[in-house]
Design a protein that fits this description.
With 491 residues, the protein is of the alpha/beta class. It is built from 15 helices and 17 strands. Strand 12, helix 13 and strand 13 form a beta-alpha-beta unit. It is globular and about 70 Å long.
Length: 491
């Protein structure tokens, strides 16, 4: 072999070895890539935002596919069986995943069932057959405050399972939380101009949205496309639509509604088409924001419909809602003493509006608030907590006194006449409404109400609101951001 041939041989050999090493490393990377598989678009969207800069999550239900009656392909089953992390909502929504998820767990795959997460606000299904039923409402993402918690919980799951890229997930989490918080504020304040129309929903997808934003949905036809619509309910609902009881009928994109012509026949009703799964939106990090914005616009258009656009005064449209939270009031504390807004000054105030007959939201919120104050330790002395009833008919001073003692020794219960409660609720932009179940005992009414905890400054100025559903630790983190800069409490 001459010198030129030897050089050429060595060069070719080196190039071949380099190519083999490159191919081998790519093969190794492909084999060791961290794979996350999730079911529906809204959850995929949140994961996609958290996984920016990585392979991103894999989506099972692409395009306009819905989970009702869905059947996975063999390729999808194989993908799920080899995933490092599987995230689904739960058996109430994705029945087709019950078996595959169980098999994935048996083979050592990590599985996250969102409905099992104790940090989230999980509502019971309104279609439970008995009082002791454990069936849950799966549409957790329809409350943007739940989604704030979801961002935290999913980021934690990603960091635990893929610790080598925890810095990436932590950075993406901070960006996503900021966007989610801004969306939540927009949604809440966007409802201040909403007319008080009552809506009917074809499918039960809005319970979380109703509670978060005081939306009035008083009639729901059926749980999902998997549940047949009863003839008697169809006839009764048609009659109520014809009588003009409802201002709007909300349906769902892509869900079959064979009874719709019978329901709306001869009825002049505004119909809105929701897209709670984002079936008409491209999958990705932006989907969740588009889904919530578009559904909110659909609901507002449907309920506000009058043939003319809703007029808003020019000055009002530019004044921040937060600038007008708080004001003068006069109430009675749980010891029978008269209290005004001036008596609250001097300390930070945490205010929660609710009522003592509240079955779940109020006691949960008060427990979180009380636990957060306990976790603050000595710094809790800077804050005074208050519980203001929106149900003065039942919550007199004695009832409030018996109730608040179960939570925090510093908690002050405030009540008053109906007019006094209306005034303080108006000052704090709190929405509430007495609801009597059709055909039910009028004494066993419930109160629909806003469920945030207000944080006010020692001078009475509004600082922020803590959304219902956050954990005590998250509340402590929020309080530490506003309290004087001393040694932060360690939750």
């Amino acid at each position: 072999m001459n010198r030129f041939s030897a050089v050429f041989f060595r060069s070719t050999l080196h190039s071949s070895l380099a190519l083999l090493l490159l191919l081998g490393s790519q093969s190794l990377l492909a084999e060791t890539a961290f794979r996350v598989v999730t079911s529906i678009k809204p959850i995929h969207s949140i994961l996609a935002g958290l996984m920016v800069g990585t392979e991103g999550p894999e989506l099972l239900l692409e395009g306009d596919a819905l989970p009702f009656g869905y059947r996975m392909s063999e390729a999808q089953q194989a993908s799920l069986a080899t995933a490092d992390l599987v995230i689904w909502v739960g058996p109430e929504l994705e029945k087709f995943l019950i078996g595959p998820v169980a098999r994935a767990q048996q083979s050592g795959r990590q599985v996250v069932t969102l409905l099992d997460n104790p940090e989230l606000k999980i509502l019971p299904s309104r279609w439970s057959k008995s009082d002791d039923s454990t069936e849950r409402d799966p549409f957790i993402w329809m409350d943007s405050r739940n989604t704030l918690i979801l961002v935290d919980e999913l980021a934690r799951a990603l960091m635990d399972a893929d610790n080598g890229r925890a810095h990436l997930y932590r950075r993406n989490r901070a960006k996503l939380l900021a966007r989610m918080a801004e969306l939540d504020r927009r949604l809440e304040y966007g409802y201040r101009g909403l007319k008080s129309g009552v809506g009917m929903a074809y499918f039960d997808t809005l319970q979380y949205f109703e509670q978060a934003y005081a939306l009035k949905i008083r009639g729901v036809l059926t749980q999902s496309p998997e549940q047949p619509l009863e003839a008697i309910k169809l006839l009764q609902s048609h009659a109520r639509l014809k009588e003009g009881y409802y201002a709007c009928l909300l349906t769902e994109r892509g869900m079959p509604m064979p009874e719709l012509p019978l329901l709306t026949g001869g009825v002049d009703i505004n119909i809105g088409i929701l897209d709670s799964f984002g079936s008409a939106i491209a999958a990705g990090p932006e989907l969740y924001f588009q889904l919530m914005e578009e559904n909110t616009r659909t609901i507002k258009r449907c309920l506000q419909y009058s043939g003319e656009p809703v007029k808003v005064a020019a000055a009002e449209s530019f004044e921040p809602e937060t600038a007008r939270i708080g004001g003068k009031f006069m109430l009675i504390d749980h010891n029978g003493k008269l209290v005004t807004e001036k008596d609250l000054l001097g300390k930070y105030q945490m205010l929660y509006f609710g009522y003592t007959f509240c079955p779940d939201i109020c006691p949960t919120s008060l427990q979180v608030m009380s636990l957060a104050l306990d976790m603050l330790g000595d710094r809790a002395a800077l804050i005074k907590p208050y519980f203001i009833t929106v149900d003065p008919e039942r919550d007199n001073a004695q009832v409030m006194k018996n109730y608040v003692k179960y939570f925090n020794q510093e908690l002050v219960g405030l009540t008053g006449t109906k007019a006094m409660i209306e005034r303080v609720a108006k000052a704090y932009k709190v929405r509430y409404e007495k609801v009597i179940e059709e055909g039910g005992d009028p004494d066993l009414y419930i109160m629909d109400h806003s469920a945030s905890v207000y944080l006010m400054a020692p001078n009475g100025e509004f600082i922020t609101k803590f959304a219902h559903g956050i954990s005590a630790k998250q509340m402590v983190d929020g309080l530490n951001a506003y309290l004087p800069k001393q040694t932060a409490a360690k939750p």
